[in-house]
UniProtKB/TrEMBL annotation:
GO terms for molecular function: adenosylcobinamide-GDP ribazoletransferase activity; cobalamin 5'-phosphate synthase activity. This is Adenosylcobinamide-GDP ribazoletransferase. Its EC number is 2.7.8.26. One of its GO terms (biological process) is cobalamin biosynthetic process.
Length: 272
């Protein structure tokens, strides 16, 4: 989350199309030309960028299933596609943040480690674990349109939660990228979360959508508290880490809810 600070310039006024293009430019590699809006102004449109990423991943997942590829191959192809369209932005933040937070020490020391582009032991381990867990979860999704829809919802909601944490916490460093691009306002964060929640419910239904929403909000609350205690705020790398944790939390919550529902159905059939 640290390689695109120069592409978003500060501006004023409400311009939804420009905001959406700016969010797409910051969070994806799609060439939409949005380089003239402040990140704090366009944060409400983060879920829109999630739609682009989710459609790409969902389409690859559906196509792999249609071609008869095994679930694990479909899962890794899906992860490859989403990493390509984002430039592995969040994965890079995950690795850097894991190195910094895992090393311990003072806040300045942690931030210094995060600014180092080299991947250390904690970063490599975090990448392997996150990739493995996400691949296993995606491989467990129902094939076809149901799984593709879930992937789309995951990518929308995992980006919809980011402005909320950015609005609630201060930047960890006054000289970092997070400070230079500005903090989203609470209203923008609420719009983003509303768009994400509405999309998840619309795509997966009320029950699954609420499960996903609860998972992403809970993970953001816990992570936000940990960030406040560890760094005193956030930076671009920790926002990338949050996005990855949010994806994992949503996927696992959906799988746990599905398994619990099946157990309840089987129990009811046995005693009905």
């Amino acid at each position: 989350m640290t390689d695109k600070p120069e592409e978003i310039r500060h501006s004023t006024g409400f311009a939804p199309i420009a905001d959406m293009r700016a969010a797409m430019t910051f969070l994806t590699r799609f060439p939409v030309g949005g380089r003239h809006r402040a990140l704090d102004a366009c944060a409400w449109a983060f879920p829109i960028a999630g739609i682009a990423v989710g459609v790409t991943g969902g389409a690859v997942f559906w196509l792999a299933g249609w071609m008869g590829l095994p679930p694990w191959i479909a899962a890794f192809l899906t992860l490859t596609a989403t990493a390509l369209v984002t430039g592995a932005l969040h994965e890079d933040g995950l690795a850097d943040a894991a190195d910094g937070l895992g090393a311990g020490g003072s806040v300045d020391r942690k931030l210094e480690i995060m600014r180092d582009s080299r991947i250390g032991g904690y970063g490599a381990l975090a990448l392997m674990l996150a990739t493995g867990i996400k691949a296993a979860a995606i491989a467990s999704f129902l094939p076809g349109l149901s799984g593709a829809t879930a992937i789309l919802a995951v990518h929308i909601l995992s980006r919809a939660i980011l402005p909320g944490v950015m609005a609630a916490l201060p930047p960890a460093s006054a000289s970092g990228v997070a400070a230079s691009v500005g903090r989203p306002r609470l209203g923008a964060a609420l719009v983003a979360l509303t768009l994400g929640a509405g999309s998840a419910i619309g795509l997966m239904g009320l029950c699954a959508g609420l499960v996903a929403l609860a998972a992403v909000v809970a993970s953001a609350l816990v992570f936000g508290l940990l960030l406040r205690r560890s760094l005193g705020g956030y930076n671009g790398d920790t926002i990338g880490l949050l996005e990855q944790l949010s994806e994992i939390a949503i996927m696992l919550a959906l799988l746990i809810a599905a398994a619990s529902f099946n157990i309840l159905v089987q129990t009811g059939a046995a005693f009905g």
